[in-house]
Design a protein that fits this description.
This protein has 13 helices and 18 strands. The protein is α/β, with parallel strands linked by helices and 383 residues long. The protein has 2 domains: 341 residues, Rossmann fold; 38 residues, no CATH class. The structure holds nicotinamide-adenine-dinucleotide.
Length: 383
């Protein structure tokens, strides 16, 4: 049996990875997770996520910032999948220390533990869950200037209801193209900065420590198990809570902002495949569906599934730091890992909504999260 440590293994993506690894019968799995209240609620032992893995792994409830505990957990691991992280893009813009402490020091502790173990270290490979957010707005084409990587959109334009993306050189309106891994890095949020810093830490230290790595830049991962409590991430959960109570859904911007959704089952199987795929070592790989879908389409689709009476309002409100669109170029994942999306968005959304209907009702404090952003000057309501 190969020994594997999964940090953040009790989270949304982590639990799916644990389940698939356990089914393979090839791994002895240790999970290290702090069971944060924001994700798991007050009674973490009774949370859906924890219950789904408790018999499938050796579980260590501890904080990734606790070096001694991390060192112990790393000591006889051959593989590490590092998922433990603070994950809210908007929240990271005012909880700066918290995001830096967890995301930077967590990664640092793993590398320090490997370094201190010296020749005793058995770690062969680390997989890191980075994010498409490192690209900021991502890759676009300008009719005058060709391929460009625009910075964040301007508040003045968005305030008057113009949510397009414009060329910074000639001011032409830009058209989206799939973002390749070599696209310019322009983090728009502190969260994105920490993800990029995690990447650079691995790129710098792994060769020196004699450890392989694969870095995945995930797009919007969705599916069964995603937190219904956390108001800082996941529009599917937020929309579901509102639709089930027939409350209005207020969609930001002009509703046409789009995202690339990829099901957690496909993400987990690809992460697992990379453990033993030599060609994926020392590589950064996008993981998404390669297709964009607008936020308003998602809201309408879920409304129909839940047969909700909610009103869908396009408000023109916006959050600083949000991107307009993004689609991953997934050809590298296809080439190296033979990646194929096996769960269509339509099927994935149906499975997700059936699961939501079986869960206890959750108050996810979404309005509180918006008030926090408004107080920090990052959420702008159209007057
Ligand atoms: N879900 C997505 O759409 C998405 C997209 C891009 C990248 N990612 C990355 O994938 C990883 C997993 O994301 P997820 O969606 O499963 O998130 P999640 O919040 O469901 O899981 C994260 C887990 O980390 C744990 N954790 C948080 N702080 C910790 C700490 N200080 N010490 C130990 N454990 C801690 C939480 O308790 C949770 O179980 C993260 O690194 C995230 O940045 C996710």
């Amino acid at each position: 049996m190969k020994k594997i440590l999964i940090t953040g293994g009790a989270g949304f993506i982590g639990t799916e990875v644990v389940k698939q690894l356990s089914d393979s019968g090839e791994y002895e799995i240790t999970v290290l997770d702090a069971m944060t209240k924001q994700i798991h609620g007050e009674c973490w032992k009774s949370s859906y996520l924890y219950k789904s893995i408790e018999t499938k792994c050796h579980f260590i409830k501890t904080d990734i910032r606790d070096f001694k505990a991390v060192k112990n957990a790393v000591s006889d691991s051959e593989y590490i999948i590092h998922l433990a992280s603070e994950t809210g893009t908007g929240q990271s813009m005012y909880q700066i220390n918290r995001y830096n402490e967890v995301n930077l020091m967590g990664t640092s502790n793993i590398l320090q533990a490997i370094s201190e173990a010296k020749k005793e270290s058995r770690v062969r490979k680390i997989i890191l869950s980075s994010s498409r957010s490192v690209y900021g707005e991502g890759k676009y084409v300008c009719p005058q200037c060709g391929i460009v990587h625009p910075g964040p959109r301007k508040k003045e334009r968005m305030t008057v209801g113009d949510f397009g993306v414009y060329c910074e050189i000639c001011n032409s309106r830009l058209a989206l193209v799939p973002t390749t891994e070599d696209s310019k890095i322009t983090p728009n949020s502190l969260y994105a900065f920490t993800k990029y810093a995690q990447e650079r830490m691995l790129e710098t230290m792994c060769p020196a420590l004699g450890v392989d790595y694969t870095i995945f830049r995930f797009q919007n991962v969705y599916g069964i198990g995603q937190s219904l409590k956390n108001p800082y991430t996941g529009i599917l959960s937020i929309f579901s809570s509102l639709l089930l109570e027939n409350k209005p859904i207020n969609i930001f911007e002009d509703g046409n902002e789009s995202r690339d959704f990829i099901n957690v089952i496909d993400v987990a199987s690809t992460v697992i495949k990379s453990l033993e795929t030599l060609e994926s070592s020392m590589q950064i790989i996008n993981l998404g569906s390669g297709n964009g879908v607008s936020v308003i389409e998602i809201a309408k689709f879920l409304k129909a599934i839940y047969k909700s009476n909610s009103q869908i309002n396009v408000t023109g409100d916006f959050r600083m730091g949000d991107i307009a669109h993004n689609i991953a170029d997934i050809s590298k994942a296809e080439d190296i890992l033979d990646f194929k999306q096996t769960i269509s968005l339509e099927r994935g959304l149906r499975d997700f909504s059936e699961w939501v209907l079986k869960q206890e009702k959750n108050d996810c404090d979404y309005e509180i999260s918006l008030d926090e952003m408004e107080n920090a000057g990052l959420f702008i309501r159209k007057i």
